[in-house]
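User: I've been trying to design a sequence by hand for this structure and keep getting stuck. Would you show me what you'd pick, starting by listing the structure so we're on the same page?

Assistant: Good idea, let's start from the same input. This is the structure you sent:
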């Protein structure tokens, strides 16, 4: 309990009702647990907080595997555990990079918890890069998506590879029709907040924005100018459309990142990092950004293309109104388009039949640009060419930027340290000054590259 209170104080948060229930159920029970709760309600912390109290930091064995449907959720969950500062080691594993490189890191880090996609975890287990014999906990996050077609065979193989699992935790925003028998759930307890009122849905205001032309680019530009400097995600259905819209907005002077599954992993990480730390105001993305990302201050969701399904819509709007915040969702419609009936008629009932909440009121919004030019973001991102392998910590980078770069602590934002490099957010007003100041300077006696991430 002391560790729990210390971690919560460090993170600066108070547990909500779902998280409190999950903590009690996992900590005091002995069986498997299913946690059902809306997107944005904090399910990652809900299972990590009780989990870390059950693991042994004095051994080098992998004791818990966390299975996730995509690399972004693996990275994000890994980051949450590291920020808890609980003394446990962790690593994320996913496709898109060499498994051999991950194996080297596994040997060096000796993680207690591994977050990974099903295929990559199977690969490491088959090659004995991860020993299955110490794994006592199996957590499947977003299990509804993990168990979809294409993941089923990999999931079954993974479960069969773990003979020593004693407890299983399954988490989702929506209830699956049934949990396949191969998951081997035993004495299952449910922490079910799925049928409570949808707090995020009720805190989102819906707007219809009518585009006079089939091509919506100018309408999008006017809408973004009307919204000022609040962070916005623009959702599209195709990768080439994402790049086209991003190129247009960049040419119009907007600070943007774009994000889709065709990018290399490092490009995707940089795009998300610049958006989440406030270095850009607009993220242009496919639905890849609609699940597994927890960026707390997204004010506006813009449907440039209509969602392809009701579930897709739910996950898109789940990116705003996180925790107790409010948010806005805009549908840009040309003359041939209409807001989907599932939006007008209320949300999805996962049990079948009826709706979980009343119909939304949709307000017509006519963009009235508040400025001729886009508002610049408050922060900028810099790349530092040293990381964990060089024994560099977040504190080292903060000291380097303040002492060598002449920054005040409040002018430094989020710092993320990777294996071979690091990102840091700094006040945009100070960017040129700090880059000049640190040229040729060393961090912990090491020369390094320091440059802006564009």
């Amino acid at each position: 309990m002391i560790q729990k209170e210390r971690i919560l104080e460090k993170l600066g948060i108070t547990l909500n009702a779902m998280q409190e229930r999950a903590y009690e159920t996992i900590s005091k029970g002995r069986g498997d647990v299913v946690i059902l709760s809306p997107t944005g309600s904090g399910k990652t912390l809900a299972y990590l907080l009780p989990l870390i109290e059950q693991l042994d930091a004095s051994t080098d064995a992998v004791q818990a595997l966390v299975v996730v449907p995509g690399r972004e959720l693996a990275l994000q969950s890994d980051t949450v555990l590291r920020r808890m500062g609980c003394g446990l080691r962790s690593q994320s594993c996913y496709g898109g990079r060499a498994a051999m490189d991950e194996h080297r890191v596994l040997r060096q880090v000796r993680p207690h918890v591994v977050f990974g996609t099903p295929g990559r975890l199977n690969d490491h287990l088959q090659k004995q890069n991860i020993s299955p014999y110490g794994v006592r906990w199996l957590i499947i996050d977003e299990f509804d998506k993990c168990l979809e077609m294409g993941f089923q065979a990999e999931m079954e193989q993974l479960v069969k590879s773990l003979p020593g699992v004693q407890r299983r935790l399954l988490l989702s925003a929506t209830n699956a029709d049934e949990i396949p028998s191969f998951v081997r759930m035993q004495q299952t307890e449910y922490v079910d907040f799925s049928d409570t009122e949808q707090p995020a849905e009720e805190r989102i205001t819906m707007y219809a924005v009518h585009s006079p032309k089939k091509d919506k680019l100018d309408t999008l530009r006017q809408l973004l100018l009307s919204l000022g400097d609040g962070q916005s995600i623009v959702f599209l259905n195709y990768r080439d459309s994402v790049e086209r819209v991003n190129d247009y907005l960049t040419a119009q002077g907007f600070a943007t990142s774009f994000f889709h599954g065709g990018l290399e992993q490092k490009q995707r990480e940089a795009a998300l990092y610049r958006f989440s730390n406030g270095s850009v105001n607009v993220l242009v993305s496919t639905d890849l950004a609609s699940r597994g990302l927890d960026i707390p201050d997204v004010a506006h969701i813009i449907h440039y293309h209509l969602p392809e399904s009701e579930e897709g819509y739910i996950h898109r709007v789940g990116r705003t109104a996180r925790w107790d915040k409010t948010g806005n969702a805009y549908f840009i419609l040309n003359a041939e388009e209409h807001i989907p009936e599932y939006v007008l008629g209320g949300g999805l009932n996962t049990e079948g039949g009826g709706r979980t909440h009343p119909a939304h009121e949709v307000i017509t919004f006519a963009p009235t640009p508040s400025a001729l030019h886009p508002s610049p973001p408050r922060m900028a991102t810099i790349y530092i060419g040293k990381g964990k392998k060089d024994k560099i910590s977040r504190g080292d980078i903060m000291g380097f930027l303040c002492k060598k770069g002449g920054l005040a602590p409040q002018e430094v934002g989020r710092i993320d340290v990777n294996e071979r490099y690091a990102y840091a957010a700094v006040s945009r007003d100070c960017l040129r000054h700090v880059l000049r100041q640190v040229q040729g300077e060393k961090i912990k006696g090491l020369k390094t590259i320091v440059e802006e991430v564009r």
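That's my pick for every position. To get oriented when you compare it with your attempt: The chain is about 35% helix and 20% strand. The CA atoms of residues 17 and 193 lie 9 Å apart.
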